[in-house]
Specification:
This protein is mainly beta. The protein has a single domain (3-161), classed as Hypothetical Protein Pfu-838710-001 (Beta Barrel). The protein has three helices and nine strands; from the N terminus they run E-E-E-E-E-H-E-E-E-E-H-H. An eight-stranded antiparallel barrel has the order 1-5-4-3-2-6-7-8. The termini are far apart.
Length: 162
């Protein structure tokens, strides 16, 4: 069984920006209910269908399959429940780990988060200097939640906290 183990953080500054350009991502959810999600994603010139189970801390079952990009586009246009999530994803290497920085666009513009995938939940992680508060346990920051409750709808107090 595939297991995703990741930690998610807000950013403290723009120190992550130098490096390769971001890849455009567009994703939506065919289902997001009770911790079970079925996501379709276009990442650059690739399409993916991903099924994720309920999270237990930073761990959750995950199965991802590459699909034809024309199928991904058709699903995004016709089958998605909730809104689409558009972002640029940047990959940054720090102390041997790949950090994925997501700069959200559209209704989630203004939100930037960094994720790091781990091999085990207790794996030690050296945080980059541009990483701020950890939000792994805050479900608002999941892409599925952002498709239903975009960052711009959180209100001024929530936006100031970021």
């Amino acid at each position: 069984m595939g297991i995703e183990i990741e930690r998610k953080f807000l950013l403290s500054d723009d120190g992550w920006r130098p490096g390769p350009a971001g890849v455009p991502y567009r994703q939506g959810y065919l289902m997001a209910d009770g911790g079970l999600t079925v996501r379709v994603r276009r990442a650059g010139e690739h399409g993916y269908l991903t099924i994720k189970g309920p999270a237990s801390g930073p761990e959750r079952p995950e199965f991802e399959y590459e699909i034809p990009v024309v199928d991904a586009d058709a699903m995004l246009a016709n089958l998605v429940r909730g809104g689409l999530v558009d972002k640029l994803r940047y990959r940054r290497l720090y102390h041997g780990l790949v950090w994925e920085v997501d700069e959200f666009l559209g209704d989630n513009a203004g939100l930037i988060v960094a994720e790091v995938e781990l091999e085990r939940a207790d794996q030690p992680v050296t945080l980059p200097p541009w990483v701020g508060a950890e939000v792994t346990a805050d479900r608002r920051y999941t892409n599925a939640a952002l498709s239903r409750h975009p960052f711009r709808s959180w209100g001024e107090s929530a936006n100031r906290d970021n």
